Amino acid sequence: MNNVETKKKFDLRSESGFTLMELIVVIGVLAILMTILIPQLTGYTDKAKAVAARADGRTALTAAAAYTLGTETAGKPYEKDDAKKEIEGSLGITADNTKGLTVNADPKTAITVIKKDGDLTFTNTIDAIAGTQKLTCDDKGDRCEKLESAGSVDKTTKAPGTK
Question: pTM of the entire structure?
Fold first, then answer.
């Protein structure tokens, strides 16, 4: 073997690719970006859950109004249990799949739709007479407070002794 062949064999710089140091720097930069992004994305998903819970309340109010109007115009007797079934049907609640929703309703006065989504619980209180809606949130941390400060949910009064 001559000197030129030996030099080519052991010269690692002649091959294309990334060095170990370059790969470590890129992985470090990606790790820093992820630590910044993950908390931000969590906030957006919580806001989306609050928007979905508020929409469920509006759907329940529309279903209650449709049931009430339908029974009054058809001259049928108003049944609270039938109204609740109508609201549950409009929200897609079946016996096999509750979708984390619980409905307590007397559509002539008030409807409450409770949605459990992970560790967040949204309570949608709808005054059927005034047509007003109040969405509150409950959790074991400070995620609801962030939603309140962002205006996604209404002010929640916490029970004494809770954080």
Answer: 0.65
